Amino acid sequence: MTITHTLADPRVEVALSRMFAQAAHDEATEARVQAQRPGGFGTPQEHADAAAEIYMPISAAGGQLLYNLVRAVRPATVIEFGTSFGISTLHLAAAVRDNGAGRVITTELSRDKIAAARRTFVETGLADVITVLEGDARETLSGIDGSADFVLLDGWKDLCLPVLRLLEPQMKPGTLVVADDVDLSSLQPYLDYVRSPANGYQSVTFPVEDGMEISCRL
Q1: Are the beta carbons of 106 and 187 closer than 8 angstroms?
Q2: Burial of 72 by CB count in 10 Å (0-12 exposed, 13-18 middle, 19+ buried)?
């Protein structure tokens, strides 16, 4: 069998199929977690630890969109806020691999998710193009070298805007920023920001699953 691109690599296909199947149980898992913590969560770390079993993935179509965007833009450095189990990371890394150059820097708070994601990255043969930063993205991303050439914001929605503002000094004109789940009310401050021309973005909503906001840095 001829492998035409990395997403068609059997190792990647198997990993994605497995994780999407497990993510199908997210609703039940989230209900159980919330029942155990009816008062909610204090810090982002507590929230991440409580959600360590929940995949919270992008959709399959959303992953394909990300792959195509990264192939087209050919960024040297892709920044991802919110690794989770690595579904979106695999799509980004597959595109970087097929571009022949580049790297993916991804961030995650949950140690359990990081361990699982790293195993998957090794199994799929993509670990060499992925760097996982453990901890609060507002801290771990403050020390990255070079420019942020493509950004995916898919962590806690109330932190998407602070993470974007943190990365803005390292974003050149033409940088694409993608945020998932535009239907969630907690993402609204972010959406208000990137949709305001005064803040230097041209933004459009792409209708895939819960919606992705694609913003070009002007």
Answers
A1: no
A2: exposed
pLDDT digits (tens, 9 = 90+) for 85-113: 899 999 999 999 999 999 999 999 889 99
Contacts of 85 (CB under 8 A, 6+ apart): 19, 22, 23, 55, 57, 113, 116, 117, 120
Q: Reduced to 3 states, what is the DSSP secondary structure of residue 11?
A: helix
> In terms of Cα–Cα distance, which of 78, 136, 68, 121 is closest to 102?
78
Taking the domain 60-217, which CATH number applies? 3.40.50.150
All structural domains of the chain with their residue ranges = 60-217
User: Where does the pLDDT of residue 24 fall: very low under 50, low under 70, confident under 90, or very high at 90 and above?
Assistant: confident
